[in-house]
Amino acid sequence: MFRTATDAEDPLHARAQVHVHAGSANPGVGLPGTKVSLDLPLLWLAILLFLVFLVLEPFRTQVREVAEEYALHGWIVFVSLRFAAIAGSVLAFFHALPQDAPARPRTVPLPDRGHDPLLSLRAFACVLVLAGHGMAINFVPPEMSLRLTQGSWAWLFMGSPWAGVWVFFVLSGYLMGKGFYSGRYTLGRSRVTAFYRNRALRILPMYYGALLLVAVLTTPGIFTAPHAWEVFSLLLFSQHSQAPTAVIGALWSVQTEVAFYAVVPLLFLLLQKCPARFPAPLAALALLAAGGFYRYEVFQLVNGMGPLWIEKIYVPLAGNIDLFVLGMAINWMVPWATRVTKGLRTLETGLLLLAIFYVLGAWVFTQGSYGPNGPDFLPWAWLAGPTVTAVVTTAVILLMESHVARRQEPTRLARKFVRGTQLAGVLTYAIYVWHEPIFARQGTLYKGGDTVWPSLAAFSVALGLTLLVAYLSYRLIEAPFEQQKVSTPPEALP
């Protein structure tokens, strides 16, 4: 049987969720963070190296050009510096921590098995990516621009893949933060090691396995000496959009996720240290505003969309860090949201908000891609997209977690929807990894047609193959490694 969201994404934080600290009469009320003895010089070194990493990524072209002036391989130099900065930050922070830190578990929402709304949110984000990459890229209906002017309904099948990735980033931030906020992980070396081990077991087997298989079947030339630098960069989670041999281009977001995972403990410490007058949620919202300002300034600098936008905003962690941190800060907002939404059907409201967001996002995406004013319209959609998506996703997570915290009985339709999307939510990582090569292969066989139906048929076949491969790889690769994750230690229990 497949597992719940807590099992699939973080199979052990569910155990921390059931803990109610003695003296806490109100489920969902967070307890003050545990004081941790830190080596301050190493902590500041970790922060400095992380800032170097953030600055380095958007300037990869400049780094490569300088390296090549000295007859060095520019991309290898950039990848090495990138890895050294993030690895140095992780090592410095790790050694700044004490060996062990006592856990002070907070009460956090615990979904029932088979009824986890966050799995439905993961499935929703995956649908956005699949619909966008499918119907808007590989299986585009003929004369799509003309169809938009004629009122065709085909645009409803073209969700925004960008929004899907941004939803994943916010949700990932929430789930990673939840592991530390709930007390499953602590800011001690032993439990931080467990966090990294669990993340590696979750990400590495599927990532390396898919890359190896797809490369062997489609681009075996990458294993030759002239392309060794590409293999080197892929092994270190550095995707290169200008690489001559593209293996699975969609995995660029995995490099961004992995960079975030590397600094989750550091970011959680910084959020936990926020003063009472400037708490974690307020700090995260300020960072979101700063992120929007940064994206606007870069937008002006690079004159809209294009390769420079992708290089400096879309891919680097610097252009997405505000989404991840906002997701982490949601953990501090859940108790408040649970109180203020009393009397509201929070699950149904969250699902309705997702439906509205999908329709609006699909309209914006298709108008920007195929509409008559697309070249002028699309850059501004890209500019506002991350911030708008982050706000909507935050609201949906708060609504869904409030529903779980209050054990609210859902309507029959909402219950069926959540139960019906659980398996898709579990498979999202595998689906994301495999969908691009399968879609690309099926896209070469798509011959088009006079109506939308051939496009939908070709998309349906590709989607079916993707789901089949994703399920098999989950059973054969993901699930066995998930079972090797480190359990919450008995001493962490109250």
What tags apply to this protein structure?
disordered N terminus, mainly alpha, 494 residues
The helix count comes to: 20
The helix/strand series, from N terminus to C terminus, equals HHHHHHHHHHHHHHHHHHHH
- Mean pLDDT across all amino acids: 87
* Main β sheet profile: none
Number of domains as seen in the coordinates: 1
Poorly predicted ranges (pLDDT <50, ≥5 residues)?
A: 1-33, 489-494
The computed structural class is mainly alpha
Q: What sort of overall outline do the alpha carbons produce when their principal axes are compared?
A: globular
Describe this structure in words.
This protein is an all-alpha fold and about 500 residues long. It has one domain (about 5-40, about 95-490). Helices cover about 70% and strands about 0% of the residues. It is built from 20 helices and no strands. The chain has helices at about 5-10, 15, 40-55, 60-70, 75-95, 115-140, 145-150, 160-180, 190-220, 230-235, 250-270, 280-300, 305-315, 320-340, 345-370, 375-405, 410-420, 420-425, 430-445, 455-480. Helix 14 (about 320-340) crosses helix 16 (about 375-405). The longest helix is centred in the C-terminal third of the chain and has 32 residues, at about 375-405. The radius of gyration is 22 Å and the shape is globular.
